[in-house]
Amino acid sequence: DAKTTQPNSMESNEEEPVHLPCNHSTISGTDYIHWYRQLPSQGPEYVIHGLTSNVNNRMASLAIAEDRKSSTLILHRATLRDAAVYYCILRPGTGANSKLTFGKGITLSVRP
Amino acid sequence: GAGVSQSPSNKVTEKGKDVELRCDPISGHTALYWYRQSLGQGLEFLIYFQGNSAPDKSGLPSDRFSAERTGGSVSTLTIQRTQQEDSAVYLCASSLVAATTGREDNEQFFGPGTRLTVL
Questions:
Q1: Which residues of B touch A31 (CB under 8 A)?
Q2: pLDDT at A26
């Protein structure tokens, strides 16, 4: 499975934008970039995904480098509730079993 | 609507005992996954069910682990002769598969997990 590399942790201030980086230099042409987050004592929840173009949804934006070897999850205005572990995951776009391969993720702390 | 539910939320057992963990996926979701998360670690894939296809058991760590999915809905993960290293949070996820294309939806919905402690 193609791997992703994320910093261990990041701190942010409430109501400021947050940029969470992810490197995936061995990404294949059919791999989608997915982001999940896990709030304390909860199961992971889907945040966003993309293939080549930048993506926006109600939770976040995903900026994908032109060579697709890196991406950045953008939270436009961090809230205390956004404190969580964020996982950047590559998921094959083909094949029957698209299990998610989680790394250790990046722990985001939000200061009030 | 109702999300993925798991029971029990917490389970404490003694080494050597068998345990059963239950997962109720979202209605209509034919794809079901089990993962486990040890303390401070990421999630580890265990097993995958999709419709009537043979399950992908490639992530099960030993033959003490087994899982069933009855009627294409509820799934049970069984751990026999539990060991202390089995202590973890066991998470279930489900997702929708398009009937016409067989393609799985992009989003997996996770349950709250079962915290298993083996003494």
A1: none
A2: 92
